[in-house]
Specification:
Elements (H helix, E strand, L loop, with lengths): L5 H11 L3 H41 L5 E2 L19 E8 L5 E8 L2 E12 L4 E10 L18 E8 L13 E2 L4 H8 L8 E8 L19 H30 L31 H10 L4 H9 L1
Parallel strand pairs: 1-2, 3-7, 5-8
Antiparallel strand pairs: 2-4, 2-6, 3-4, 4-5, 6-8
Length: 308
């Protein structure tokens, strides 16, 4: 049986896709491929955002501390994006009466609290300083002990971070759900830098006991790039699978068996090993031999046996 030429197969596949069922299948494939493309773009943007964040850490985290006025000229100045993680040096005193605990803060997969204390600089403007992490206490309601900040005049080096926004839920007294700079600043009173807060790097004089400093951010890029490639590959594979199954449907309707399909091994135009055309009634030698073995003796063979 002759196989369909490629051109004829392509035309038959196009006709197939105009049938209602196959048109719906094709529409579903197109919809899926578009969704896969957008999901890939989403993962790609997350990868780029991670690259940009790592670049800021690499550029600013280990820089020499500068006066805070170089980064935040006024209390209401927003922290510029390119100055994230910039270390600043300030001198003044802590105001422990206004400190707050930030709830549900993990460190090394252990949940605890971060301690934020207003630091009133010699200029009279307070900077909210995250002094570090404390583990949850035995009752898991608050830390068992909260180390006090050093008293008197202190020099602090802190890395600037933006505030974390607001949360409508009401936390327990003395605690916050996020580092909401505006909310904590209102509790502290007076002039406060509201464009960001400081993540403690060091303080002089150093106290005997202090919270655990927050470590440097992880620079792992995560799986976002590989996820993007997988989504985009899935968009291409959807069309490939549609083409494969449409071709099989067309060939099946034309009565082509596996040996007649393009690329089938041993396909020589339908001729047998002897060069004769293989008709519907043609039998393979092995099949004919097997059938003859299953057949009983002929009448002549019986007569010869009886008369012998």
């Amino acid at each position: 049986m002759n196989r369909l030429p490629d051109a004829a197969t392509s035309r038959a596949m196009l006709r197939l896709l105009r049938e209602p069922l196959w048109a719906r299948i094709a529409l579903a494939v197109v919809t899926l491929s578009i969704a896969f493309v957008f999901l890939g773009r989403w993962q790609w943007h997350r990868h780029e955002a991670r690259l940009a964040a790592n670049a800021l850490v690499a550029a600013n985290y280990g820089a020499e501390p500068v006066p805070i006025e170089q980064v935040l000229p006024t209390p209401g100045t927003s922290l510029p994006q390119q100055r994230l993680w910039t270390p600043v040096r300030v001198t003044g005193h802590y105001e422990p009466q206004s400190q707050v605990l930030i709830r549900n803060r993990p460190l090394a997969q252990v949940y605890g609290y971060e301690v934020v204390v207003p630091f009133r600089t010699t200029s009279g403007v307070a900077l909210l300083v995250d002094r570090g992490w404390l583990g949850a206490g035995e009752d898991f309601v608050r830390p068992d002990t909260i180390p006090a900040p050093p008293g008197g005049e202190v020099t602090v080096v802190a890395r600037l971070r933006p505030g974390e926004g607001t949360d409508s839920r009401e936390p327990p007294p003395g605690q916050e759900l996020r580092i909401d700079v505006a909310r904590i600043a209102a509790r502290a009173g007076g002039d406060v830098y509201t464009g960001g807060y400081g993540l403690l790097a060091q303080e002089q004089p150093a106290p005997a006991v202090a919270p655990t400093l927050i470590p440097k951010p992880d620079d792992d890029l995560g799986p976002h790039l590989s996820y993007a490639v997988q989504w985009w590959a899935g968009a291409v594979a959807a069309y490939v699978l549609l083409g494969v199954y449409a071709r099989r449907e067309v060939e099946g309707r034309a009565g082509l068996g596996p040996a007649d399909r393009p690329g089938a091994a041993g396909d020589s135009g339908g001729s047998g090993s002897s060069g004769e055309p293989a008709g519907p009634g043609a039998r393979r030698p092995a099949e004919a031999t097997a059938r003859s073995r299953r057949r009983g003796p002929t009448d002549e063979e019986w007569e010869d046996g009886l008369g012998g």
